[in-house]
Structures are given as C-alpha cells and as structure tokens.
Amino acid sequence: MQRLLFCLLWMFSLFISTSYAVEPNHKYILATANTGGTFYPVGMGIANLLSLKEGMPFSAISSNGSFDNIRMLDTKKVDFAMIQGLAGMMAWEGTHMYHNKPHKNLRSVSLLWNNVEHFLVTKDIATTGNIKDLKNLYGQNFSIAENDSGSKASAEIIMDTLGIEYSKMNLYYLGYNQSAVALQQGKIKGMNTPAGAPVVAVGSVFSAMGSLKVSLLEFSDEDLKKIQKQYPIWKRYIIKANTYPRQTKEIQTIAQPNYLVTDVDTPEEVAYRLTKTMYQNLAFLNSVNQGTMSLSLQHALDELVIPLHKGALRYYKERGVSIPQHLIYTNP
Question: How does DSSP classify residue 266?
Fold first, then answer.
C-alpha cells in the first residue's frame, strides 16, 4: 500500500511539475535590434542569464528592429522581442502600417527603458541646435536607420509632424554602427539612432569627433507638444552632460518607452521564468548597459498598452504588484 501511495504521489508531482514545463528540445529566441544600440547587448545579457541560471536553451539575435521583430513573432521564428512602444501600440491597436490589422496575439512581459531620440549631425548642419536643423540635410546624405525598424518609422513620424521633408534628403538605411562609421568617414552628414542612453554608436562618434564637430539636436517644448498631439507616447528626456565622451552640456530631447513582448502561445512557465530571472538580476543587467538603470519592479507595468502574458502576470501577482485592468486580457 505504501509503495502504491508513493507511486501515486510521484506521478502527481510529476504532473504538477510538467504542467508548467518548457517545451522539450525547443531553443527559445529573443529578437533585439542591430548591434550598435541598447536592445542587443541587454538581450544577450537576458539570454545568458536564462541559459546559465535557469538551464534553458535561450539565445538572443540581432534584427532590423521593432517591425521585423513583430513579424518574426507572428511567424513563430522567435519567442520574445524587444520593440519600441510606438510599434507595439500600432500593432496592438491596428493603426498606421497595421491599419485594420491589429495584432491581438501580442502579450507584454515588461516595460523596458526609455528609447531616447538621438539625431546626431555634423556641426555645419546644426545651425541652431534644434531638430528642425534637419532641413539643412535637404540634398545631403542622412542615415534614417534600417528598413523594418521602429527607429525609421519613429523618425518619419517625428519629421512628418514637424514639417521636415525627409524625401528631400539622400537617405541611407544603415545600422547604428554602420551609421557611426559613415559619419566619421564623411560619407553621411547625420544619423538617427534612438535607443537607451548611452548608445554605443553615438558614444563612438563623440569619442572620435567631439562636440566641436558633431551635435545632438534638441526638441523644444513646442516640438514635443506637436508630436504628443499625434502620438502621446513621447515625453521629455534630458541627456545629462558627460553621458557621452566630450559632451559638455545637457541635451533636451524626447523619448518613448520600450517593451519586452511575446506571443500569446508562449508557455506560461517560460514567460514566468524570464520575468522572474530578469528582475532578480537587475544589477547584472545594469552592468551590461546603463540604459537598464531605470528598470524596476515598481515601474514594470508603467506605459504598457498591450495586455500581459499569463506567465508575466503570474510573477507580478506573486510579488504583489498592482495590475491595471487594461493589462489583464479578456475576450471581447
């Protein structure tokens, strides 16, 4: 009888442990962006944490950015993705490039850091230091970021809103590191590299050229109000002095949130363990990139517009985090 009882208990415990199990023989993939921004190094850090601490087959890959990542989630090529909040809002609500095609398969895992706008141009272009100096790039070479990236889309929206006709520029579609090299070599006059500050690619330009040769363009309060009227997701952000080498004054720019998202079909246990591991190892992620310094459990759900994945929801409930109603998915 005792042996039978032991077997029954063992089978029950096995059922409980495997009811939340990860998929066998499945390598989980996190899509980031190009290697010169913030997504990629932090994504690599998260993947390494899950591989080493959780024993999960996990990797991070570079990509063209937010819209490419959403497409790969749709086609099940990746399991998790880092995306700009703007791209996430468009996809969830079915607006802009997703007009009448809402992506209701998306689920949030966490808010990430601020995606800070960095429009970096040569000094001769920055006649006033304001974002409208981009008009001085008409007929000049400008890297607007890679196709399929949230960076390109957000730049287009910002410029459209402020009356800057980017069609009059000679546009290049380069990754962040490629843009930095091209700017230093004089092949382009400016580059668009939004990411968590400090951005590696921007730092390399400042280190090589200094503030006497390049400028980060600023946004006035009026500029911000116009942009917020179109997409209220943006807010004021100040890049502190000395964030970049030889950058001696603060920069008044703007930022939007970044999201960590997944697909509704991702196993609950996988999303739970990723969320838990990330928040239990913030010190490590802070050492990977300073852009993660704003991450905290207290603000993990701020500014999210996409409902939470059930695995992430489970972790936040365990930690006593208050869950806004709009982040709990209910069938319409």
Answer: S
Domains 24-114+258-327 and 116-256 share a fold: yes
Fill in the DSSP letter of residue 81.
Answer: E
Torsion of CA 218, 226, 38, 143, to 10 degrees: -70
**pLDDT tens per residue across span 216-230:** 999 999 999 999 998
Considering only CA atoms, which of 240, 196, 191, 198 is closest in space to residue 214? 191
Question: Partners of 107 in the beta sheet?
Answer: 262
Reduce the DSSP state of residue 276 to 3 states and report it: helix
- Report d(CA 235, CA 126) in Å as an integer: 23
The Cα angle at residue 192 between residues 301 and 149, in degrees rounded to 5: 60
- Looking at the domain 24-114+258-327, which fold is it? D-Maltodextrin-Binding Protein; domain 2 (3.40.190)
Number of H helices, E strands in the chain: 11, 11
- Total residue count of the chain as it appears in this document: 332
Q: What is the DSSP string of 164-228?
A: --GGGSEEE---HHHHHHHHHTTS-SEEE--BSSSPHHHHHHHHHH-TTTEEE-B--HHHHHHHH
Q: Where are the domains of the chain?
A: 24-114+258-327, 116-256
Closest to 180 in 3D by CA, of 146, 143, 215 = 143
Which residue bears the tokens 């990977």?
A: 288
In this structure, of 8-22, 40-54, 96-110, 308-322, the range with the lowest mean pLDDT score is 8-22
Residue 7 pLDDT level (bands cut at 50, 70, 90): very low
* 128-153: average pLDDT: 95
- Band of residue 13 on the pLDDT scale cut at 50, 70, 90: very low
Architecture of domain 116-256: 3-Layer(aba) Sandwich (3.40)
- 8 Å CB contact between 64 and 149: yes
Report pTM: 0.84
